[in-house]
Structures are given as structure tokens and as C-alpha cells.
């Protein structure tokens, strides 16, 4: 209706000078007219130009005076025409703000005599303030008013409209679909079809959305698979201290095994079973060494190894898998393996913007004969290059289960500095030999958090905005695809 009103008007008139007045004349809502103008403009039926008008609107205070009169007139009228009224009594008739303004203005205008008694000095007064307010209310702009408050000023937007290059008195309807009926009746020859708009955005899909961590996880899994790695089964958050620490040659006094760093389980507090002969070899290597090692020289306690905990790293899974592989080697001979995992780990950490008590670890390992530190560096360079990080540096580090060990750094262009992105090393003979591997079998391994690269990639600077109960669902809905490894 709005659309037809505009087109018909322009058939006989040069211009619609003001969409606001036009809307009022047609009795159509201005917003509807504006929508029609925009749509007609899009199809070049009309040309339009913006009009902006600033209008004054009354505040609540202004509205009140427009209805009830200005405070000074209200006050004047409350003073008797003859005689006087006590000031106290007069005050009771008004609320304090009105009384104050009323007294001051009526005094200034010399309308009343103010003392303990108040009396009129003139017979009659004119309410100019009220008249002015009423004019403003009716939209008769008073340009001489100065008002300091922005809240009195309202901007109105409208258009002036003329015929456009494709003007026609009636809007042509474009067909959006070619139907069976169109074809059968021959209509298709006459029909005008709507052009495709390849720039239009599709409606947002109302489906589930993957969390950025899941997107990242999928991409990294793909990279591992492309590199020929198999995924390790990580479906156990509860682990025994044995697989999490002892099997990894981590001494029982190590500070990480303290309840300040590790969550221990109350029930069940201990593990049900461990491979006894292997436990015996682990005990030996801790206490007195072997395989060329001196060991740690302390009394190894089974109770400590039995304690259940929430795994502090996925290397607990690596130790289980390697033990299995070593058993398989005894029966069927050695097969080289490339394993990876990406799953949750737990640490008793103070939570802050970069730390959570639970996070995800990415872990990779290669088990083969004759591997060297050179292989580890080469594999890391290949792996991280696929993650988009080609500029790596390695720094000597210490882990109880690897020797040598290296921290991995990458130059972050955005931050303009080297950031630590992972930890790595070659598993020690004290870990591999008790498992039963042949002497020349080496394992190179590395680990990193999933959160770190995800935060860098998605530009999130507080880990609590990425993971946990404070995460904004919109972040999940709107986060872009993870393009890592797709180049
Ligand atoms: N487990 C180590 C960590 O939690 C990572 C790592 C894995 C280091 C494998 C070396 C070898 O940080």
C-alpha cells in the first residue's frame, strides 16, 4: 500500500518533498513509507535523498508545566487576590521543587511580595512559559530556545523522493521460481525473473554449533592422521598414580605428586590392579636403577603408586599404550607406531586468565628403532608447520621422563615475541626398558595445550571466555571455521 501510494503520487508529481508530511497526508505510518522507499530505491524505481530534522521534545518536567502551568503561575494563583497568605501555609500547597522555582520566578517577575506573609503585586499574569511549552509540544519549533540538555533534542530522519531510472507507475512483480505450471502454460516466455543476489547472506542456521575447541581438535586430528598417526583411547579421566607418574620414572617425592598440584580421588581411592611383574621392574628402576641408570635411591612405596587421581597429563595414556606395545613386541615382534591423543587433563591450579583446573592436551609420540633428537626436531617442525607455525626454536628443559627434553617456542607475529607452544623429549630408558622394549627402540614425544593455539587463533585473551560456565553461547554460534592445516 505504501509502495503504491509513492508510485502513484510520482506519476503526477515531480517530487515527494518530505516523506514525513507525505506519510501524514496518506495516513500511513512513516516507518512503512520509509521501508517502501528503501525497497523501491533498491530496484531504481525511485531516487531518494536523506532529510534530517532536529526537533525539540519536552522532558517530563516540561510536560508537567505544559499541562499544569509554570511553577511561578501556579504559585501566583495560590496567593489570594486580596489580602495575603502566610508563607508556611503557601508552602504546604506545593511540592518543594515547584515551590522553590515558583517563589524565585514570581519574585523576580515582581508578581508577588515575599515575606512571612505573601501577597499579590499585580492583578493578572500571563503564562508565557506554558504557551512556549505547548508550542514545542505541537512541533512548532521555537528556534530561539536554547536548551543545554541533549535529551530535549530529537533527530528525525526522512527522505525526499523523485522518480528513478527504472520508474514505472506499477511495480513489476518478478518471479522467483520457475514452476511446472509456468512451463506447461508457456508463461515462462513472458515472466521476468528476479536476479540472483550472490551477495545476500543466507539465514543463520538454527542448528548445533561446534565449540572452537572442538573445531581446533578436529583440525589437529586431521593433521595427525595425514601424518600417519593413530589415535590413543583416552576415555579415562581417572588414572592411577602408577601410570600417571611411576611408569614415567617420576619419583614419588616429586612435588607434582602433591595434593597441591594433583586432584586425588576419595572413592575409590586406590586402583584395583596393576601388572605385577612390570610394577616390580618399575620399583627396581626407581630404587636402584638398572639399564645403565643409578635410579633415585629411595624406598619406593606401592601405596603411593596405587593412589587414584585425575590424570594430570595424557602422557599417562602414552605410558599405558607403550607398555601394551612392548607386550605385543614380546609376542609378535616389534612394529613401529605413531600415536596421538587430544583430551582433557586436570591440575589443582589457581584459576586465572590463562589457567584453568582442567584443560586439554595434545600429545604425539613416535616409537621406532634408532630415533634421534634430530628426528624429533624434524617431526615437530613438520607438525607445527601444518598448524601454521614455521618459525620454531627449542630450549633445553627438564621432564622426569624425557632426556633430552626441549621446550618449543614459536615467534608470534601478532604479539611480536617468542611464545612457548609445547614441551617435548625422548622418553628415558628408565621408562622404556622396564616395559620390555628392545634396547634400540626409541620414543620421541611432545605435548601442548589445545587451549593456547585456539585462543591465539580465535583472538580470545581470557581462557574463561573459551571454556567453562562463563562462555557466551554467541561465541560458539559465531566462531568461524578453523582453517588450520587446510592450506
Ligand atoms: N606431559 C608433558 C606436559 O604435561 C608434555 C610432554 C609430553 C613432554 C611428551 C614430553 C613428552 O607438559
UniProtKB/TrEMBL annotation:
Major place of residence: cytoplasm
Entry cofactors: Mg(2+)
Pfam family of the protein (one): tRNA-synt_2d
EC number of the protein: 6.1.1.20
PROSITE patterns the record matches: AA_TRNA_LIGASE_II (PS50862)
Keywords: Aminoacyl-tRNA synthetase, ATP-binding, Cytoplasm, Ligase, Magnesium, Metal-binding, Nucleotide-binding, Protein biosynthesis
Protein location: Cytoplasm
SUPFAM superfamilies in UniProt: Class II aaRS and biotin synthetases
A molecular function (GO) term: metal ion binding
Organism superkingdom: Eukaryota
Ranges for domain Aminoacyl-transfer RNA synthetases class-II family profile: 214-480
Assembly mode: Tetramer of two alpha and two beta subunits.
Family, as annotated: Belongs to the class-II aminoacyl-tRNA synthetase family. Phe-tRNA synthetase alpha subunit type 2 subfamily.
Protein name, entry field: phenylalanine--tRNA ligase
Organism: Linum tenue
Lineage: Eukaryota, Viridiplantae, Streptophyta, Embryophyta, Tracheophyta
Amino acid at each position: 500500500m505504501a509502495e503504491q501510494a509513492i508510485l502513484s503520487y510520482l506519476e503526477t508529481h515531480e517530487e515527494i518533498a518530505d516523506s514525513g508530511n507525505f506519510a501524514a497526508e496518506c495516513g500511513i505510518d512513516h516507518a512503512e513509507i520509509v521501508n517502501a522507499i528503501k525497497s523501491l530505491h533498491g530496484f531504481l524505481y525511485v531516487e531518494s535523498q536523506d532529510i534530517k530534522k532536529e526537533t525539540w521534545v519536552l522532558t517530563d518536567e516540561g510536560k508537567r508545566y505544559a499541562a499544569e502551568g509554570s511553577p511561578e503561575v501556579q504559585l501566583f494563583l495560590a496567593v489570594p487576590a486580596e489580602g495575603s497568605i502566610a508563607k508556611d501555609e503557601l508552602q504546604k500547597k506545593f511540592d518543594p521543587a515547584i515551590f522553590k522555582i515558583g517563589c524565585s520566578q514570581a519574585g523576580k517577575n515582581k508578581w508577588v511580595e515575599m515575606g512571612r506573609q505573601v501577597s499579590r503585586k499585580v492583578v493578572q499574569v500571563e503564562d508565557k512559559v506554558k504557551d512556549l511549552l505547548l508550542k514545542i509540544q505541537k512541533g512548532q519549533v521555537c528556534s530561539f530556545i536554547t536548551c543545554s540538555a541533549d535529551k530535549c533534542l530529537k533527530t528525525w530522519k526522512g527522505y525526499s523522493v523523485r522518480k528513478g531510472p527504472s520508474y514505472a507507475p506499477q511495480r513489476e512483480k518478478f518471479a522467483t521460481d520457475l514452476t511446472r505450471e509456468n512451463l506447461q502454460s508457456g508463461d515462462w516466455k513472458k515472466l521476468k525473473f528476479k536476479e540472483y543476489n550472490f551477495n545476500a547472506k543466507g539465514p543463520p542456521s538454527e542448528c548445533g554449533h561446534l565449540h572452537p575447541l572442538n573445531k581446533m581438535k578436529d583440525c589437529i586430528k586431521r593433521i595427525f592422521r595425514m601424518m600417519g598417526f593413530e589415535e590413543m583411547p583416552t576415555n579415562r579421566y581417572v588414572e592411577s598414580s602408577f601410570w600417571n607418574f611411576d611408569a614415567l620414572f617420576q619419583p614419588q617425592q616429586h612435588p607434582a605428586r602433591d595434593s597441591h598440584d594433583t586432584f586425588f580421588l576419595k572413592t575409590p581411592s586406590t586402583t584395583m590392579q596393576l601388572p605385577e611383574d612390570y610394577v616390580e621392574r618399575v620399583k627396581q628402576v626407581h630404587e636402584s636403577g638398572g639399564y645403565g641408570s643409578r635410579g633415585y635411591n629411595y624406598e619406593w612405596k606401592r601405596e603411593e603408586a596405587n593412589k587414584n587421581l585425575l590424570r594430570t597429563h595424557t602422557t599417562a595414556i602414552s605410558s599405558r599404550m607403550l607398555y601394551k606395545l612392548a607386550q605385543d613386541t614380546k609376542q609378535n615382534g616389534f612394529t613401529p607406531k605413531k600415536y596421538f591423543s587430544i583430551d582433557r587433563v586436570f591440575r589443582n591450579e589457581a584459576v586465572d586468565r590463562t589457567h584453568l583446573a582442567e584443560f586439554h592436551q595434545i600429545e604425539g609420540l613416535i616409537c621406532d628403532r634408532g630415533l634421534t633428537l634430530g628426528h624429533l626436531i624434524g617431526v615437530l617442525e613438520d607438525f607445527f608447520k601444518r598448524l601454521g607455525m614455521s618459525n620454531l626454536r627449542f630450549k633445553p628443559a627438564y621432564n622426569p621422563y624425557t632426556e633430552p627434553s626441549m621446550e618449543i617456542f614459536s615467534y608470534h607475529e601478532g604479539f611480536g615475541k617468542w611464545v612457548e607452544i609445547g614441551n617435548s623429549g625422548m622418553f628415558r630408558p628408565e621408562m622404556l626398558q622396564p616395559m620390555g622394549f628392545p634396547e634400540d627402540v626409541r620414543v620421541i614425544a611432545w605435548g601442548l595445550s589445545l587451549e593456547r593455539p585456539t585462543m591465539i587463533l580465535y583472538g580470545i585473551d581470557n581462557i574463561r571466555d573459551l571454556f567453562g560456565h562463563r562462555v557466551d553461547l554467541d561465541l560458539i554460534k559465531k566462531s568461524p571455521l578453523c582453517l588450520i592445516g587446510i592450506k
